[in-house]
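Q: Second attempt. The first request was missing the SMILES, so the protein and S-adenosylmethionine are both included now.
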Amino acid sequence: MRFIGSKRLLLKNIEYVISQNITEHEKLNTFCDIFSGTTIVSQYFKNKYKIISNDLLYFSYCLQKSYVELNQKPNFKNLDMSLEVEEYLNNLSFTQKGFIFKNYSPGGKEDRKYLSKENATIIDGLRVCFENWLSKKKISDLEYFYLVSLVIEATPFVSNIAGTYGAYLKTWDKRSFKKIELNPLNIIDNKKNNKSYNEDCNKLIKKIEGDILYLDPPYNSRQYLPNYHLLETIAKYDDPVIKGKTGIREYKNQKSEFYNKSFAEDALESLIENAKFKYIVLSYNSEGIIPEAKLERLMRKYSKNVFNKYKINYRRYKKDRKTSDKEKLYELIHIIDKE
Ligand SMILES: C[S@@+](CC[C@H](N)C(=O)[O-])C[C@H]1O[C@@H](n2cnc3c(N)ncnc32)[C@H](O)[C@@H]1O
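A: Got both inputs this time. The predicted holo structure:
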């Protein structure tokens, strides 16, 4: 999935930093991805470590429950079907006009153009179907999260947006005319008891411990929820109160100190201070609201013996790209030993 701040292109760099600075990295057990987003970092390290993952976004939590907690695709044995579940669902037809149809397709009063009427109807149909199956105990909780994740992964491919859900396009992009298609998730089996959370990181950090803590906090004031509100609503399917041209949901319980210039540094310090992990790896953008010198001071303050800082040239997220200062942008990766 395309996601602001995704580390998809930096996975090998993160791995390199760990292998260069932690001599016993192959013997360590637990890796925590506490700002997990798309779960791509958790997935990458799942072959090596037991994973603890977390994010404030609920749709990220659904993805985590699938990619992190599951070690194999669920068998949906109570559904008693001969087809693979994705194929079965792709062949269903739906007519119900639900919340997504009424609010995010031209079928609704507001004429929002996030999804075609056909795809919005299918998404509503699938979500109602999953809720029924769960309430009738035809599927387990993990099977439910797997199914919701299928829809979350498939929706961006048919959404009429320029990358995020902050706005829909005025004219229809051709991808919106394709029928939404569910595809099996690639589940990695590490035979470990991996665990996912949906909490503020500063609360969670007091309850967990492990070997490597990977921190990838937001680095500017652009909140994630407004940019991904439709995926959050599809995941929760909770008929929220929505407002404005884009039909955004309320998110006061999902606000985070990391987006705020006055609070971000203290929030990061408190996270590091409370961490019961042997090593901490921090990714941050050179244009982030916490300046580079302050980040370094903070990481040095909590390091015992190891401190290292890497600068990795990084392409700006397309929407923000300004050609003039392209060269100056880089990702900073710090690593320290804490315990
Ligand atoms: C830079 S993104 C992480 C991207 C992720 N590493 C990936 O590659 O997909 C930052 C994430 O932090 C989450 N977040 C922001 N504040 C948070 C908080 N206080 N506690 C937990 N997660 C938070 C956001 O929802 C967002 O998914």
